[in-house]
Amino acid sequence: MKLAETFYYLRDKLRNAGVVACDLEAEWTIENVLGISTLERIQRPDRAVTIDEMQKIELILERRLSGEPLAYILGEKEFFGLKFKVSRDVLIPRPETELLVEQAFEWAKDHFVKGSSPELLELGVGSGCISVTLLHLIPELKATALDISPGALKIASENARRYDVADRLRLIEANAQFASRVLGGQVFDLVLANPPYVDLTDPHVEDSVWRFEPEGAVFSPGEKGMDIPAQWVNELPNILKPNRSAAGFEFGYNQAGEMTSLFQNNGLFDKIEIIKDYADHERHIWGTTKWMP
Ligand SMILES: C[S@@+](CC[C@H](N)C(=O)[O-])C[C@H]1O[C@@H](n2cnc3c(N)ncnc32)[C@H](O)[C@@H]1O
Q: Whole-angstrom Cα distance, residue 42 to residue 45?
């Protein structure tokens, strides 16, 4: 088969099975198996797909049609234009999390002058998509990132090496609830987190999340899944600089009220904003402290 025919074959199989992003998934699969860029795929629709390549595509299709997310099958996921290695030890980076990175990037650009070295702390680093992207975008930035999962830290470390930022990223295996103790009281300019925040009884959770994603990365105990986000926000006074600093957290579709109260109650912030995601859902909270010397 030619490349273009293979694309239509794959896309139609995915579409018939109800895969919403069938076009994109067909493109990513072909690029991954053939080891070609998007440009090459577009420029060479007549390129022959070998039997070996076609067998690999069929195997991917079989796993995909059984419900496994494509990112785990291919072992990578695009985030903010970068390709992150992923395994079943990490949450698949989500497009909405890109907005937290964008917010942090804009804040760092506006508030840090060239020559200064802002320090980021990320709680729950997972694949490293947040910290590694920011380190890639901001050459002056240094980051420390915690995760309770050794498997996730291994993937984050590989992604840091992939983007040549490993020398500016300190990875620590620890419970973020006790971040300050682990970090010996060090305070940071910027603290970011996408904590596990999904309520274990949430009926909206997709079947593939239950079946394939790490439970410890997704779910949080407590009413509305607020236990872990609350523990991490409550640690902020011990890990965030009291002035000229900011903190940003991702949260669930029904947690904006609880997150706002938690951010208000610790008395740290001069300004608190809620940021909406692409689907117009309240998704991130951003707090900034006073800009004093
Ligand atoms: C929702 S995932 C976010 C991963 C990544 N930052 C992202 O945005 O894709 C949450 C991460 O927190 C980690 N985690 C869960 N409980 C933790 C804890 N108590 N302390 C530190 N990390 C924890 C999980 O292993 C997981 O990697």
A: 6
pTM over 0.90: yes
Span 39-61, pLDDT tens digits = 999 999 999 999 999 999 999 99
* Contact of 165 with 134, CB cutoff 8 Å: no
What pLDDT is recorded for position 113?
67
Tell me which residues of the chain have a pLDDT lower than 70: 113-115, 293
The domain in which residue 128 lies consists of 88-288
Ligand 1 centroid distance, CA of 288 (Å): 23
Identify the pLDDT of residue 163.
98
Identify the CATH number of the domain in which residue 130 sits: 3.40.50.150
Same domain, 162 and 243: yes
Strand duo 190-193 + 119-123: pairing: parallel
Residue 148, ligand 1, Cβ within 6 A? yes
Q: Please, are residues 190 and 245 in contact by the beta-carbon 8 Å criterion?
A: yes
| Tally of domains in the chain | 2
121 with 21, same domain: the answer is no
79, part of any domain: no
Residue 229's nearest CA partner among 183, 271, 285, 280 is 285
pLDDT of residue 293: 66
Q: Which of 80, 90, 192, 255 to mutate to test the pocket of ligand 1 (most atoms within 8 A of CB)?
A: 90
Q: What are the backbone angles phi and psi of residue 42, rounded to the nearest 5°?
A: -70, -40
Pocket probe mutation, ligand 1, options 86, 97, 125, 147, max atoms within 8 Å of Cβ: 147
What's the token pair of residue 178?
A: 């006790």
Q: Is residue 80 part of a domain?
A: no
